[in-house]
Specification:
Number of strands: 38
CATH class of the largest domain: Mainly Beta
CATH topology of the largest domain: Beta-galactosidase, Chain A, domain 5
Structural class: alpha+beta
Radius of gyration: 27 Å
CATH architecture of the largest domain: Distorted Sandwich
Strand content: 25-35%
Number of domains: 3
Bound molecules: alpha-D-galactopyranose
Shape: globular
Number of helices: 15
CATH superfamily of the largest domain: alpha-galactosidase from lactobacil brevis
């Protein structure tokens, strides 16, 4: 529900359990008033506190600069007295900076406007509010859009800047949203990591000054994540305040938290202003990516449930949200570049007997690529490896009753490629300098439309040439020296954002032309696992590290925001190829159960005893596949926090069934077994676990006593059924 109370000059956006409130001052400035538990009135202007007079004069008419310094601006602008981390800055054609945005009009409507050229949440059943802010002197308008997703307790926000003058101007900063909080938030929850250990959870204290999470890599990267949550000090899994923002964007981002002189906390998020400058001609507009925002008083599990419900209903491609995903086998860790058609068919033959449903041919099937040092861009089948061509191979795999999937890295070009020899100007490069290498490759200049069209035509041809039902879209290096040889000087600051827009355009074309294609994104593992990519691909390869212990931490962080069905989780070799850890085969499978299950090993070469375990592992996965995909996920215990064990569960929406996963990472001697308090069950329902009946409230309040396990890296999957 969205209300504008004109007598109070107050906007109120209500979800089922929360309210977000803004007010317009007499002068027309838009301020943030409140975000939190549902407010029953619009009589809230007092909470903007513009009548207060501490040492700095704040009330208008008076001194504007003093006022701006204190005003809780809803969409703060640079250069006119608001000295905090602002959202927008514009340099006009005279080179001057400074904006003063005032409310011009607003519009409340049902449904939602789609953001042009970028992914955004779908809007069925929603209500939206547009507030038009304007600066007449600059000739700029900014339209703030809010959409209310009542049942998920989520509000999405985005902004677009319009040049309403007849002169060009330059947007040098364009963040999507900002939150001003006066409440007692004390902690920041964020995700950080590196290659092979993505998205570990980090909780830090908010202090005076600024805390910045950002990426300058042209993608979110392994290191940081376009998400931030502010927590009350007492916030834990079950209760406490959480204010979260997640950016639907797959490029450079910034999330900043700032605690000011009045102990107020401002959090903002959007495209990173570094290496960014967008020229806007008169009449043009610039769209900023969407932010998914929520408040909950139900702790981090409450935040997770809201995000999961929201992603499933409004972001993931509807074709795939509830559709069963095939159990796949990927040949990367099985063969690396050393394979041919017969080797792949051998793997597929063995895999099909074990119940695996799809073979994915990874890197190395095109050009003359036998190592990672050539051929990106030459998307032609290497017939020395795949004799008789792709169709023949795919037909052989299909004849075994298996689907076929293929790997691409469309955004890249190898210096050793026919494409580069023909078009050296198609790589991003600083004028007069050899582009820098990373994984022996350059990045294509996607600000050139002919490049994007050419790459799409190659993907299209390959996909049309055989019955290919899955694509793994990879991206294996960051963008640097992001300059285009084709753009004019005053548009070079657009290259990184143009790359992201072209990426979205390509994926949109792909899923439109091939509506049944299952697309899995990937970026050196999980460097581009974000809400933007999930709009096109229902699953993303979570990490190049499939070691189950590392995966506990990666998956804990990933599942904090994203539904289990979005995470590519595979069983790989032991010792693990990245960290050498030796773990039991079944533990690897149990940890991979809460994702899109698959194998990343050579089934023809693993030990007989392990191979024999595969059919039962697949059966187990299939048994819980639907529950994992549709149920509510709850974190019970975290190995990251306790250093010993990890546990989480999924409960069906009707609360009839659940599955509990427990991993004993480190064994202890002569201790009591763990008593776990479960979540999400119906308190008065009776459940059956291994023939014993429990009341839901008993399992949640008193707890469930885990079976004793012997040894490190042991796991159990506990099935919770309704009692007869
Ligand atoms: C990246 C991916 C891997 C694999 C290789 C191939 O590292 O994350 O899964 O596809 O590229 O080069």
């Amino acid at each position: 529900m969205v209300i504008y109370d004109s007598s109070k000059r107050v906007f109120k956006l209500d979800t089922e359990n929360t309210s977000y409130v803004m007010g317009v001052t007499e002068e027309g400035y838009l301020g943030n008033i409140y975000y939190g538990k549902k407010a029953d009135t619009t009589d809230l202007m007092y909470a903007m506190r513009i009548d207060e007079h501490p040492f700095t004069p704040a009330k208008l008419p008076g001194e504007k600069i003093g006022f701006m310094d204190r005003f809780p601006s809803e969409y703060p602008f640079d250069g006119t007295g608001d000295f905090h981390g602002n959202c927008i800055n514009i340099r006009n054609h005279k080179g001057q900076e400074g904006l003063e945005l005032k409310v011009q009009s607003h519009n409340i409507y049902t449904g939602k406007r789609k953001i042009n050229g970028m992914p955004s949440a779908r809007g069925e059943g929603t209500m939206s509010l547009d507030i038009v802010l304007s600066d007449k002197a600059v000739g700029a308008e900014v339209i703030l859009t809010y959409t209310v997703y009542e049942e998920c307790d989520i509000i999405t926000r985005s902004a677009r800047a319009v040049n309403v003058s007849d002169k060009e101007f330059y947007i040098t900063k364009a963040l999507s949203a900002c939150l001003n909080l006066e409440t007692d938030v004390s902690d920041i929850l964020s995700l950080h990591g590196s290659w092979a250990r993505e998205r570990h959870i980090q909780r830090s204290k908010i202090n005076y000054g600024s805390y910045v999470i950002e990426s300058l890599r042209g993608e979110p990267g392994h290191q940081d994540h376009p998400f931030i949550a502010l927590l009350s000090e007492n916030c834990n899994k079950e209760s406490g305040d959480v204010y979260a923002m997640n950016l639907v964007y797959s490029g450079n981002f910034i999330a900043r938290v700032q605690k000011d002189q009045f102990d107020r906390v401002r959090a903002s998020i959007g495209i990173n202003p570094e290496h960014f400058c967008w020229k806007l001609e008169g009449g043009q507009e610039f769209e900023m990516p969407e932010v998914i925002m929520q408040y909950t008083c139900k702790g981090t599990n409450g935040m997770t449930n809201n995000f999961h419900n929201f992603f499933r209903k409004y972001i993931l491609p509807p074709r795939w949200t509830d559709a069963e995903r095939p159990v796949l086998i990927n040949n990367w860790e099985a063969t690396y570049f050393d394979f041919n058609d017969d080797k792949l068919v051998q793997i597929a033959e063995e895999a099909s007997k074990l119940g695996i449903e799809m073979l994915v041919m990874d890197d190395g099937w095109f050009g003359h690529r036998n190592l990672d040092n050539s051929s990106l861009g030459d998307w032609y089948v290497n017939e020395e490896k795949i004799k008789g061509g792709l169709k023949k191979l795919v037909d052989r795999v299909n004849a075994l009753g298996m689907k076929f999937g293929i790997w691409f890295e469309p955004e890249m070009i190898s210096p050793d490629s026919d494409l580069y020899r023909e078009h050296p100007e198609w790589a991003l490069a600083l004028d007069g300098r050899e582009p820098g290498l990373c994984r022996t490759q350059y990045v294509l200049d996607f600000s050139r439309h002919e490049v994007v069209d050419y790459i799409y035509s190659r993907l299209y041809e390959i996909l049309k040439s055989a019955n290919i039902e899955y694509v793994k879209w990879d991206m294996n290096r960051p963008l640097a020296e992001a300059a285009s040889l084709s753009l004019p000087a005053d548009r070079q600051g657009e290259v990184l954002h143009r790359h992201v827009l072209a990426l979205y355009e390509l994926q949109e074309r792909l899923v439109t032309d091939f509506p049944d294609l299952l697309l899995e994104n990937c970026s050196g593992g999980g460097a581009r696992f974000d809400a933007g990519m999930l709009y096109y691909s229902p699953q993303i390869w979570c990490s190049d590290n499939a070691d189950p212990v590392e995966r506990l931490m990666i998956q804990e962080g990933t599942h904090l925001i994203y539904p289990l069905s979005t995470t590519g989780t595979h069983v790989a070799d032991s010792p693990n190829h990245v960290n050498g850890r030796v773990t039991p085969f079944d533990t690897r499978a149990d940890v991979a159960l809460t994702g899109t299950f698959g194998y990343e090993l050579d089934v023809t070469r693993i030990a007989e005893e392990e191979r024999n375990l595969i059919p039962a592992q697949i059966e187990k996965y299939k048994k819980y596949r639907h529950l994992v995909q549709t149920g509510d996920y709850y974190r019970i215990a975290s190995f990251r926090e306790n250093g010993r064990y990890d546990s989480y569960m999924v409960v069906s929406k009707d609360k009839d069934k659940a599955v509990l996963i427990y991993v004993q990472v480190v064994t202890d001697s002569n201790v009591l077994t763990k008593k776990l308090k479960l979540y999400g069950l119906a308190p008065d329902k009776k459940y059956n676990i291994d023939g014993v009946e429990y009341l839901g409230s008993t399992l949640m309040n008193v707890g469930y006593i885990m079976k004793p396990l012997r040894g490190d890296f042991q796991s159990v999957v506990v099935e919770i059924n309704p009692a007869e």
